[in-house]
């Protein structure tokens, strides 16, 4: 799975080197990214992290667009330094001029959202449901208190949970 990714990263670097007529330091490439982001460029560590699930589900576009997008960040950083905007003129120049790709800021891949449990808290107000995250529910169990903004009473766990 990492082989086509590494091949594409190398290809992008070779294109940049031919275009700018100078060498670029190669990054560490990792498939350790989860969540909604398809890829992340760590400029100071010279590292690229990619989302393996989004790569599997969108491999053709991912290799073409996402890999070039992230490599362009590292190339722009090596060329222009820290002061440039992440998706600014310099990065866009590389996307258009070197890779001949649209400088899209975000991907449009479909994301499977994780199911989350909400803990329902209530106060004396009519129809008051306050869905708390697992983290907030744990804080309440450790002694933290939350108040209703309307009646200023302490929110109390109802015993109910909801999966979203």
From TrEMBL:
Pfam families in UniProt: SprT-like, Zn_ribbon_SprT
Gene Ontology terms describing biological process: response to stress
UniProt xrefs under InterPro entries: SprT-like_domain (IPR006640), SprT_Zn_ribbon (IPR035240), Uncharacterised_SprT (IPR023483)
Domain SprT-like, first and last residues per copy: 7-158
Binding-site residues, Zn(2+): 69, 73
Entry keyword Cell wall biogenesis/degradation: no
Required cofactor(s): Zn(2+)
Keywords, comma-separated and alphabetical: Cytoplasm, Metal-binding, Zinc
Presence of the UniProt keyword rRNA-binding in the record: no
GO molecular function, one term: zinc ion binding
GO cellular component assignments: cytoplasm
Residues at the active site: 70
Compartment(s): Cytoplasm
Cofactor note: Binds 1 zinc ion.
Protein family according to the UniProt entry: Belongs to the SprT family.
Protein name: Protein SprT
Organism listed in the record: Pseudomonas abietaniphila
